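Researcher: Next sequence.
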Amino acid sequence: PDKGTVDGGTAVTITGTNFVDGATVTFGGIAATNVVVSATQITCTTPAHAAGLVDVVVTNPDTQAATKTNGYEYVVFSITSPTLPVYVAAGGSETFTAVGATSYEWEFSAGSPTTATGESVTWTAPSTPQDVTVTVTGDGTMTDSGQIHVYGRFGIKDKPVEPPVIQAGDSATYQLEGGIDISYAWTVTGPDGYSDTGTGASYKFTAPSTGAFAGVYTITASDGVATDSFTVKVPMKVDPSAKVMLENAAAQTLTVTGAPAATTFTVTQYDLSGNDVTGTEGYGTFTVNGGSPVETFTYTPDDIDAIKSFKVKFTATDASDLIAAGLDSVTSDIYRVIPIDTYTVTVTSGGVPLTATVAVNYPVEWSSATGTDADGKVTFSLPATGGTYKYSVTATGYFDKIVASASKNVAVSLVEKSTDPTDWITGTVEDTGGTALVGATVFAYQTFETQYQATTGAAGAYTIVLPVGAPQTGWTVVATMAGYEPKVLENQSIGTVDFTGTDGLVATTVADSGDQTVAAESGTITVTGGQETTLDLTYKGQEVKVEVPIAGVTKPATIVVKQVAKTVDTDATKGSPTYVYEITAESADPAYTLTAGDINRIVITLPIDLSVVGPGDLESGKYVIYHADTLAILEAGNGSTVPTTHIISTDYVGDGQTGSVTFWVRSLSVFGVGTPPAAAAAEGAGGVSGCFINTAGHGSVFDGPAGVVGRFGEWFRSILR
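Model: Next structure:
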């Protein structure tokens, strides 16, 4: 051709005569490349040159030259619009224009049309995102090409139809789809001059929690070409959102934040059926104190005879923007006021009233130890939660007793100690090497529900005082001590029972860790069964306690407690606060593999969310304690339930927001509190039963008739000392 692009690279054929091999060619004084010479024809490739007409000169090796004046024209041939590469939305259109030729032929690798002619062509992109190549040929010889990036329609993925409500301090993440992802940008505007920006395909919006934050926020996203937006609503916040208090509690202070300064509020109380109970006797009174930007209110509970549960609605009457957005009110979670009632404990023996001392020592020390009257009665003023209290009862000449009960009238029958030494069990405790063990615990029982114990003194001697009229035979006697494996002797008679020789205690190389208090996400204790050991773990405002009583394990074990965040809202964990707990056991002796039967009793105290779990809910079965092998199984609702008979005590008052439940288990796993399924699997009754399942006859030192091992765990339920 006699023309080509200024970029060069055009293949040109020159015809003439007397060309000699080795001849050179220049275009406008610049040498061509790829020169191939014959006598009458030369082929070569044009160099780059500025636009315009240039001379073409052929020079033979003997310096003879021929010139064709203005023989070749350099032109600017290219796609001038749009600038390539270009981004086009799927299904969208774009007009392409080229210059520098008299004829144009277009080709597109996808879309419509795929071929066209003319200086300009309008092209429609395919309906799916992809890369498309566009090529234009000018005058049959010149070409230019580039890339078209076809992207999906730009927008916010799963954009809310209605403005979502996000609580102060909470977060939500939004994603973009389609568009030109190299230039995604976010902007957020809101009340009180709030603004924020972000880049990238996702944006995390965290609702403000200070100042006049309540209102409507507009979130806008752009890809540099198109925009998309939606709004979110952030309501006012009441603190505390839920509360449990006693009828005799001091006035409580509540706050509402997020409203504009100098906002006027009204307060309305509703019972759990939605009835307005404002000003109704028993529901207490609210006083509006005002304040800015934090509005304060004072609540004074009434004296009541029954639990009062209600919610509180705080309404801003003069905040026009909040009223227009439907955000002029905020309602608390459940507030509960617990009455104080009389709990009576009656202590007898054989139906005869006893002079005894009684103390309520769980969940907190509500009262000092108090003596019974002539009728064997003692009364306590306690929160009437419907929960379980634990009473310690002592009387001279009788065995101490611990009783757990939810009743307001608790009958306790004590067992009289025999004063006849021939009715006692005595003996000596040694290790297998013959060394006397001082400080060992020895206990005896006919049934596991009732046990009697003593501690060895000098020379390892012990004396277990038994009840008047105790059976002469059929006793199981157990000796335990820290650093030794528990030893069980069955079918013993009243008299002398020695743990000596081959019946002596076997030392273990594993040492008990002792009680541990841990402020971390996880903690461990090492136990051998020879002493009581407790792990108290507190982390991020939640506390769990794990207690291993004497002989709670029969082999050295390491108990591991981990605080695990809930991942989803599920019925199986809704009664637990933010975290549930994974509690597992592993052998502390490298030479031994821990088995299910090596765990007899673990006592666990879990936190409960008092805004969800009401007074007496665990005793009534409205809420249950779940356990499962993994968090996923627990949250899927496929765990087992701990029987209500395993509950030792409950605290439905706590700090007003978090209470606790104490219970015992034989198997360890992940524990949480939730609502019961239609047919829950109780522990040991099928379903998922945890990492360790109690079984009889498992080859431990507690071997014996089937059922003996299983019943051993009952000792903590009702212990007589």
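Model: The CA atoms of residues 173 and 204 lie 4 Å apart. The chain has four helices and 60 strands.
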